Amino acid sequence: VFKSTVTNQSLWHSMRSNLPISSGIQLRLYSSNGKKDGTYEYGASSTSASLGMETQNPKRSAQGPSVSSQPTLEQIQVKVKAILKKRDYGSTYTQNNFITGMRALNEFCLKPSDLEKLRKIRRRSPHDDTEAFTVYLRSDVEAKALEVHGSREALLRAKKQRQNEEVIHKENHFRNQKLMREYREFLGNTMPRSTKSTPFLEGPGKVVMVAICINGLNFVFKLIAWIYTGSASMFSEAIHSLADTCNQVLLAVGISQSSRHPDPGHPYGFTNMRYIASLISGVGIFMMGAGLSWYHGIIGLIHPHHIESLTWAYFILAGSLVSEGATLLVAVNELRKSAQAKGINFYQYVMHGHDPTTNVVLLEDAAAVLGVLLAAGCMGLTSLTDNPYYDSIGSLGVGTLLGAVSTFLIYTNTEALIGRSIEPENVQSLTELLENDPSVRAVHDVKATDMGLNTVRFKAEIDFDGRIVTRSYLEKQDIEVVLQEIQQVKTPEDLEAFMLKHGDNIIDTLGAEVDRLERALKLKYPDVRHVDLEIL
């Protein structure tokens, strides 16, 4: 600390009437920046001066005021607050940012051998499966890149060349994939069979494949019966089975796409493809199934015609009832198992659309069973009364049934695509887990979104208790070493170095606390796959 001594005569004249003695005053001002000018704070106290100054002559204070008429020079000390100079962090400071080895190789067109002699720093990894990883200083990497390439212009040319090579590589990769597909189609797949089960041998995929086979056969038989009888109700049932078959093929495509792994363009994966396929399926049911059924029913009412023998139609409807009922039971069993796994009842699972593909099969088959019964009843009335209007009314009833199913599917899948929260009980449970943690003072703006396919994204803003985080850091340190570092702090520069060192380590400790909370959330609710905890 700089120490300066000045004699301020004007201060003496202003204080003369308040001092008990007639004396000159010597002020000692303490500054942190070594300059005489500037703003100073006076904070000392004294019993001999009413302005808050402290004398350096304790004997005189103890003996009382002097009666000598000779003027004396009296020293007082004034303490000045030490403040660090504010720094301007420009682009040069950000050159000390860290960069991973992979980014260094890609962005600066370097080779792995170029990074061997650079300074390596071990940092905490953001990934659960890696404890720490190596990073480099960006300034070191840029300097090495300039050394390797010779100039910034040469570096830019190398980057452009690498981009062109990446484009060519992607084109070749796409061409090779196309050749491999052609090879498998015409010459057979010579790769060994995978022991991993495909998505169509279990769960919703199995239900969809069974429904495709049964509804396809039902469509063929109903079409033959309609051609033979000319019944409007039978035509509606044939269209119904065709719509179901097409929609379930679309569901199979959605299941296949949803199982794709995330890529840089789709970091959260393709789980919503099931909801998209189900939404399109609902629209298809409405347009193809309900629309054609209504159209054919209205035409039958306007232009009624005689219906041939319905004996074969009854047999086909009976077979369709059995097959549709079997598919309905498969869908019900699958949904019941999934509902039990989630800890909710069957009704809640269906109404919230947790499994969109199986829901579509369930509702389509339920509508098919009811449609078969409705068509058979209207055809029976037509046979008994010889009135074709009953048959047309049956076609309108089947169309109305399909319209109701499609409306429900469109609504539930739209809600899922918009972004639907998980059950409030689960949200409350996850929030309480965070609030009960000692390092958390408050939790705000909690959002838990169901992304489909048993995948939940959880987001919350956390107000951490800095004292607990700091104590957690100190528990891992050698206190004797820390105390020695504190004793060596003599100047503001020493204090700055001490705080920067331990402040950086405390930030790493805070990151470790965030990782710990994320693991706890995923353990509490396994469907939570993506956790975003923002620090307030």
From TrEMBL:
Polar residues bias spans: 44-71
Family matches, as Pfam families: Cation_efflux
The keyword Nucleus is annotated on this UniProt entry: yes
Residue stretches spanning the membrane: 207-228, 275-299, 311-332, 361-383, 389-411
Limits of the Cation efflux protein transmembrane domain: 208-417
Record GO terms (molecular function): antiporter activity; monoatomic cation transmembrane transporter activity
Catalytic activity: Zn(2+)(in) + 2 H(+)(out) = Zn(2+)(out) + 2 H(+)(in)
Keywords: Antiport, Endoplasmic reticulum, Ion transport, Membrane, Mitochondrion, Nucleus, Transcription, Transcription regulation, Transmembrane, Transmembrane helix, Transport, Zinc, Zinc transport
Region feature (Disordered): 41-71
One GO CC term, this protein: endoplasmic reticulum
GO BP annotation list: intracellular zinc ion homeostasis; zinc ion transport
Locations listed in the record: Endoplasmic reticulum; Mitochondrion membrane; Nucleus
Topology class, membrane: Multi-pass membrane protein
Main location, first listed in the record: endoplasmic reticulum
Gene3D superfamilies from the UniProt entry: Cation efflux protein transmembrane domain, XPA C-terminal domain
Keyword Nucleus assigned: yes
Entry's family note: Belongs to the cation diffusion facilitator (CDF) transporter (TC 2.A.4) family. SLC30A subfamily.
Name recorded for this polypeptide: Proton-coupled zinc antiporter SLC30A9, mitochondrial
